Amino acid sequence: MNLNILRSPIVHRVKYFIKDKSLEFILQDKLYQSLSLSQSEIKQYRDEFLQSKIIDEINEKLEEFAQNVTGVNKKGYQYKTGAMPLEKGIYLYSIFRKIQPEIAVETGVCNGVSTTFLLLALEKNQKGKLYSIDLPEVVGMDYEEGYFWEGKKGAAIPKDKESGWIIPTYLRNRWELILGKSQDKLPELLEKVKEIDFFMHDSEHSYNCMWFEFNQTYEVLRQGGVLMSDNIERKKNTAFQDFAKEKGKSIVYLGPKLAFLVK
Length: 263
Ligand SMILES: C[S@@+](CC[C@H](N)C(=O)[O-])C[C@H]1O[C@@H](n2cnc3c(N)ncnc32)[C@H](O)[C@@H]1O
What we know:
The protein has 263 residues and is of the alpha/beta class.
């Protein structure tokens, strides 16, 4: 595994670098209390993740993105991968290893980094299926006004690629991609699967969309299931906090913008 700290500004924009400190985040008390993760499980999952070839595989694809994608979209935002950082990947992986989901749902795939982390854990569990909903922005394409939400920035996939293109082939057999707006696609998916063990939001970070997704998925989330959200804003957009309050649930923060609650 490549543990180099990467210094080139372009590469730095997309590649992971590992600081020892970031690996300690996983030891946060709240994380193991809320899901009864023991210290030895935390260490085991972290070691499994770091010893897998996944970081090198993702870095290779992100390098390809950096080499081929430049410029800004119509709104003037620099194209970017939108990828979750490595520490979050270790969390996602560890949570999936612990809760052993049968059915998991996420919104927001883009190039597929979070999806890869989740699928890696399902593969190790040797069970479970992940459904992912995504409305991708393709580099160089023009979209009519209102196609995406007004707050969308530059997360995009390269021309001639599909959402989740970086996901290695050996992880795809537990995955189903649904293309379209989560507001349109989520209800029919949940109707089909009936009950879920995990949901994660990382798509349209508007208050309305997040509120919609949390309400929809909580209905079918099993007791003890995990509802997670990225892009939690403590001041600008308090959808997750408001939702947790309404349900009387405490929030476990895994960083400034990633958090979950347990039903
Ligand atoms: C931040 S990116 C997801 C990054 C991904 N989770 C990762 O770690 O690599 C957000 C994705 O959600 C898509 N998106 C935006 N609005 C959406 C909507 N209403 N429904 C579904 N996907 C949406 C974006 O185009 C983009 O592909």
